[in-house]
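Example pasted here:
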Amino acid sequence: MSALAPAESTLVVGCAALVRELRSALAELPVELVLLPAGLHNRPERIPAAVDEALEQHGAAGRRAVVAYADCGTGGRLDPVLERHGARRLAGAHCYEVIASPAVFAALAEEEPGTFYLTEFLARSFDALVVGGLGLDRHPELRDTYFAHYRRVVLVVPTATADLVDLGRRAAARLSLAFEVREVGDEPFRRALLPLVPAGIS
């Protein structure tokens, strides 16, 4: 096996929905950050091909490659792409689990399986990605189809600022669901990402 490339050549391919978390965690590290469209959240079957293209285009071969996605609804189809490129990804099923930490997410899911999770990005982009992306603006009756089994919205964010809480509350009202806030700090995401990156925490 060849030696790892220098830290400065590390490539991080991530979801634009995690842009704040990624830039915060990687601010002091010499990496190339490539962001893929957040709209892939609504079409997870397209994530493996998009990641494959990004790794190929930005030269993952010969240097450390980190993919800042969890499985994210790909049903395991992302992992063969990563194996082919020698890349590693965030552990877990989706970004909500990574941001909150596996333990906190498991507790939330056990408490109420019918939970719709909002990150900071999704709260700020709710109208475009959820309302527009799911066609609720054109067909509001679809709310009862898409969210029939949901009972609450939980805003999972490092810092629950007043504007984020207001956006989360409005999103929950749009979906006719109860609303809760879980402030988790930056550490869960940092602990998930940085061990994958040279010069990151161990």
About this structure: The longest strand covers residues 10-15. The chain has two domains: 7-92+187-196, 102-183. The two ends are 22 Å apart (CA to CA). Residues 61 and 171 are 42 Å apart (CA to CA).
